[in-house]
């Protein structure tokens, strides 16, 4: 994650508009907008103020980070991890993210989606609508190996389900839990933050319409082998 992405994430996590953040620092809103678009960078004095506002070290604020993931397999079986991640991303993109067809409900009034490829099986099942909770799981040769629980809600009438699907469709191997760390389309912005790796993690995703948060979802999970 680069500086401009990190700044936008932090500002939204602290529920500050560009104008409010600019006021705290003593600069114009346009200056903050340029920082977040990558058209300019703050000087050292402004970086120190940002560090104090967001309670983050200068090193963590400015250093570009790469989000990574890992799932433990026996030594020498790196290809199994790659195969697992390839399958998981394909399964996710073929399910809810693509408005995939639901299978027969496993529980009363649940929404269930499934994807299989050889020895791999992926199931996603959730309850609710505007407020929802669910679980994703992966099986290898009928043995459960990985699971993720999630719960979320829409917060505003400007929430867009299609935008959320687009975000989830753009998930990556580097951050294969929900969507990418940052995704934008028009007036919508998506953020996803994760602590941990594929073996044990927790995270949160949010969608903003302009400066208004319209959706949030919390998730956690990991390896169960």
Automatic annotation (TrEMBL):
SMART domains: HTH_XRE
Domain HTH cro/C1-type intervals: 10-61
Name by which UniProt lists this protein: Predicted transcriptional regulators
Alphabetically ordered keywords of this record: DNA-binding
Transmembrane segments: none
InterPro entries per UniProt: Cro/C1-type_HTH, DUF5680, Lambda_DNA-bd_dom_sf
Keyword DNA-binding in record: yes
GO molecular function: DNA binding
Cited Pfam families: DUF5680, HTH_3
Superkingdom assignment: Bacteria
């Amino acid at each position: 994650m680069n500086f401009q992405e990190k700044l936008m994430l932090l500002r939204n996590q602290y529920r500050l508009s560009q104008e409010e953040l600019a006021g705290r620092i003593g600069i114009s809103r346009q200056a903050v907008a340029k920082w977040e678009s990558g058209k300019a960078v703050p000087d050292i004095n402004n970086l120190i103020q940002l560090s104090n506002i967001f309670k983050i070290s200068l090193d963590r604020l400015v250093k570009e980070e790469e989000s990574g993931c890992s799932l433990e397999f026996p030594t020498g079986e790196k290809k199994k991890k790659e195969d697992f991640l390839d399958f998981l991303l394909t399964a996710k993109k073929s399910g809810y993210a693509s408005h995939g067809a639901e299978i027969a409900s496993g529980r009363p009034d649940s929404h269930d989606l499934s994807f299989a490829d050889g020895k791999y099986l992926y199931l996603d099942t959730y309850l609710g609508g505007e407020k929802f909770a669910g679980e994703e799981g992966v099986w290898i040769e009928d043995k459960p190996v990985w699971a993720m629980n999630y719960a979320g809600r829409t917060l505003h009438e400007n929430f867009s389900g299609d935008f959320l699907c687009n975000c989830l469709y753009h998930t990556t191997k580097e951050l294969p839990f929900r969507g990418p760390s940052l995704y934008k389309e028009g007036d919508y912005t998506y953020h996803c933050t994760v602590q941990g790796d594929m073996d044990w993690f927790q995270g949160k995703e949010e969608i903003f319409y302009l400066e208004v948060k319209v959706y949030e979802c919390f998730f956690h999970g990991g390896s169960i082998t």
